[in-house]
Amino acid sequence: MKRIVCFGPGPQFKGGISNYNTSLAKALDKFPEAEVHIVSWTQQYPAIIPRDFIDRASRKDLLEGTRIKVKYITNYNNPFSWGATFNYIKDLNPDIVIFQWAIALQGLPLGYIARRLMKLKNVEVIFDTHFVKQKEASSIDKFFSRYGLGKAHTYIAHAMRNADELKEMYRDKKFTITETGERAKEGNTIIKLYHPVYDMFQPDKNFDLEKVKQELKLKKHVFLFFGFIRKYKGLHNVIRAYARVAHQRNDVSLLIVGESFWQTLNPNSFSAKVKKALFGFAKSLLLKNSDNEQDYQPLKLIEQLQLQNSTTVINRFVPNEEVYKYFQVADCIVNYYLFATPSGVESIAYNFHLPILATRVGHFPETVKPGYNGYIAEPDNIDSMAAQMLNIIEHPIDRSRVAETADKFSWVNYAKALLNK
Question: For residue 165, what are the contacts with CB-CB under 8 A and spacing of at least 6?
Fold first, then answer.
């Protein structure tokens, strides 16, 4: 029996990393010889961050039918819980511990726990890196990243750029890159794997396309933006590019589905006001190079550009049970990101065989093949973005090719590489 710990946000949390950690645990649980535990945060970030991270909308138990055990124990704001987390994992006597690395801010607790685990015998410590070099990182981000990722046996990189950044960050380490999962005999191993396709969201076989289009007031060709509304995802560019398309054609719709990331708390509550003030002050001290994303309001562009009649907005967190509807009604997903780490939204799209429109940033040139499973636009170029939106209408992508991409990015292949099978 191989005992595996998947450390990361458990299924009670919102967002892609929670979905990813849960899906990884479920993929590993399918191997009879594996005993899988999710060890999760209770609070992932400093308490002053003005946002609700708990999924209060979904009702389905994502772990139903599995053998997976979940323990919520690690509080970012309580260092004593970091030690308690180490002791809990140590008592499980695991063979593998996989940490989800998605933000530099978590470097202190993760680095502390990983360092203590590295002193144990017969435990492989793995960091599954969703990014390595944080965009516009401050000096404190760089410190957190270097400390947090510093101690591990194995790293997973979802793009070659991430592997290169690991080598650049730790010039004193000897890295061996593999795509099979075979571990290096000396030094550290980087396993280069693509972000797997989310199979937790399944298509409805009885989906009534025309009925849903009518309900959502959508026209013939539907462009979908899905997920948390954050500046790096470039919704402002999506809307501006779509405006040029909508002014040329009267048979298109833009469907925007997602929660405004920094607008989940009641703005009139005293606690929200205090958190916002403290968080703003902390950012001004520590993150001088960052934009104030709390003021990011791209949805205002819809009225400014007179797109109300062809744009539908679902500005809330969508429970897991609803996700299928928006992907099945759309003709393509639009990921015009300013910069990119491997995208959970892209992976959901592949599961629904939905073509991708993306910018030439991050890993997208590795996964999106123009004319095969989508099209690539140039970043910060609205003309290019609009042209590719028109291109996918005039030269549609064969959905069977997108299905081939989905097959290649399966969780089974990913889990086999982790288990070195």
Answer: 132, 133
Residues in CB range of 252: below 8 A, 6 or more apart: 219, 220, 221, 222, 223, 242, 245, 246, 310, 393
pLDDT reported for residue 286: 52
Between 142 and 97, the more confident residue is 97
Give the predicted TM-score (pTM) of the model.
0.82
CATH among 3.40.50.2000, 2.60.220.30, 3.40.50.720, 3.40.1190.20 for 209-260+297-407: 3.40.50.2000
Mean pLDDT of 204-224: 96
Q: Which CATH number fits domain 2-198+409-419: 3.40.50.2000, 3.30.950.10, 1.10.10.60, 3.30.565.10?
A: 3.40.50.2000
Per-residue CA distances from 166 to 56, 112, 145, 273, 338 (Å): 36, 19, 10, 39, 22
What is the distance between the terminal CA atoms of the chain, rounded to a whole angstrom? 14
Listed range (117-121, 147-151, 280-284, 384-388) with the worst mean pLDDT? 280-284
**Which residue's entry shows tokens 């389905």?**
60
Coil, strand, or helix at residue 243?
helix
**Read out DSSP for 349-380?**
HHHTT--EEEESSTTHHHH--BTTTEEEE-TT
Q: How many CB atoms lie within 10 A of CB 204?
A: 10
